[in-house]
Amino acid sequence: MRTLQAIGFDLFNTLITVEANALQIAVGRLVGSLTENGFPIDETRFNKAHREAAIRFIAETRVTGRETHNRFWISAALQAVGFEVDPDDPRIAQAINAYFSAFHESARLIPGTAEMLSELRRRYRLGLLSNFTHGPAAWKILDSLGLTEHFDTILISGELGYRKPHPLVFERLMEELGVEAQDLIYIGDDPEPDIEGPCQVGIQPIWTTYVWDRNIPFAPGIATIKNYQPKREVPRISEWKDLLSLLESNGTPESCPPPESE
Fold first, then answer.
1. Tell me, what is an example of a GO biological process annotation in this record (predicted)?
2. What is the helix (H) or strand (E) element at residue 8, kind and residue range?
3. Predicted confidence (pLDDT) per residue in 61-103, tens digit
4. Confidence tier at 3 by pLDDT (50, 70, 90)
5. Phi and psi angles of residue 257, each rounded to the nearest 5 degrees, phi first
6. What are phi and psi of 178, to 5 degrees?
7. CB neighbours (10 Å) of residue 1?
8. Structural domain of 153
9. How large a percentage of the chain has pLDDT more than 70?
10. Measured in whole angstroms, how far is the alpha carbon of residue 83 from the centre of its chain?
11. Which of 105, 126, 156 marks a domain boundary?
12. What is the bridge-based pairing of β-strands 204-208 and 236-237?
């Protein structure tokens, strides 16, 4: 019998959204910072190389589960257009801050999120687990939106060294919250990391489709790949009142169902 003690949340497209043009502005600021710091790059060539490098590095994380970082693909992109620059060059660090400033400025809470978290925290331990390459930018967004205070633990993949759906990050979430898998649910929007990931360790996922249902642009990654075809039949919510109703009715299953192909 499930005795729900804790709830975990994804961040982007689950608790917050960003403006539709955030990525375009971010890449523009990245290029501007590099140019100001002595790299006379052709914007079109660099943007192509940057996107290709980002996709390549992110694809590798999907195989190994180990998190990557923007500095690696920025360095690779610069090398592709003729500049030999180490990933740890301070000019790259400055460009990364410029890049993420666009997301910080355009991040918005999904309506009702703060109220929902305040209500749930009276009954459950709450955790945040986000795939986010650059920890400082994630914390800045969380602090500016007033989210930090709502959580008992906050885990960012760029600080953990691994990213969802790797089992290690969900095991760490359980450890930080002090609960077993059967006492925890996890809420997220992306089927691969947010449904398959928790199911690997026995955590029941809840699929939130707020962004999908309202045609809101996904955020924030340059190499983000969204596949809205879950392999399993799991509870689905479209707004926070759906979650509250689900919890009130004890409507969360006690275990993950098997993939539909099985």
1. small molecule metabolic process
2. strand 6-9
3. 999 999 999 999 999 999 999 999 999 999 999 999 999 999 9
4. confident
5. -70, 160
6. 70, 35
7. 5
8. 6-18+109-248
9. 93
10. 31
11. 105
12. parallel
